[in-house]
Amino acid sequence: MKTYENIQETLSFYGVNCKESYYISSGDYVKLFPRKPFRMDYFAVCICTAGSIRLNINKNDYTIKKTGVLISAPTTVVRFVKSSPNFRLKLLFFDRNFLLKNISNPFIIEKLNLFLNVSYTIMHLDEVDYETSLSLLKYLQKKSTVEGIYTNDIIRSTILNLLFELAETIARKGIPTSQNHSDLSIRFADLVVQHFKEYKNVDYYTTTLCVSNKHLIEVVKKSTGKTPHQFIDEMLLKESIVLLGNTTMSITDIAFELNFQSVASFSRFFKANSGHSPTQYRKKK
């Protein structure tokens, strides 16, 4: 599995040289997609404008057709399976830090409840919502080609507008969510994303958040369906799978990268959570 640490590395596959912290596609035909799964370490909004595509997202299979939208957060793992000859996609990538510049609430994205499956949502829009979202993406593309004093601010506000429109659609449709967000669970998840390699023990997170272990378990379990320990392990497993896809890294390198005390402890963790040893998994893939 390929690890894409930023927007620029993802776009390099398509020969696109992007120097910004955001990218809006033209929506033209895309001939090739990465064959291996990759991790999206940025936010993405992707709208299918024609044809269909089959995807595997966090090990779940989906087919997206015209008016379908994928909204994803960092750590989402995507594998392209197959697309129809007439498939077209309009997409937006952006970094968290770019969007949140000059915004006082650092958790505004999480508070919108956009991610019904913890890190992503797939849904189909009605004609009105589809045209609204598509027009905002087209406007973003147009503004991204203009050099102005306030260009980045206009792009930020338009991205927020799009996210609010999509959040409104989710709320209006009453789409069931697997994650009933709370401020504490949002802060916990954000800390885990930042520090799961260094801190695998729940104690670090309870100390940082100034809450008891019992309270954190209750809140996170209610919000995500997982205990804090399971949430951390899931993040570690996803990262392990990504790194195992990088054949230039040895299993020793991966254990070191993830701050395990030894290769043996990493192997035990991986087998307990995936059913395979790291070597078996790498051979299988």
UniProtKB/TrEMBL annotation:
GO molecular function terms listed in the Swiss-Prot or TrEMBL record: DNA-binding transcription factor activity; sequence-specific DNA binding
Alphabetic keyword roster: DNA-binding, Transcription, Transcription regulation
Taxonomic classification: Bacteria, Pseudomonadati, Bacteroidota, Sphingobacteriia, Sphingobacteriales
Domain HTH araC/xylS-type: start-end pairs: 186-284
InterPro entries assigned: Homeodomain-like_sf (IPR009057), HTH-like (IPR037923), HTH_AraC (IPR018060)
Xref: PROSITE patterns: HTH_ARAC_FAMILY_2
KW DNA-binding (keyword) present: yes
Pfam families xref list: HTH_18 (PF12833)
Cell wall biogenesis/degradation as UniProt keyword: no
Name of protein: AraC family transcriptional regulator
Domain of life: Bacteria
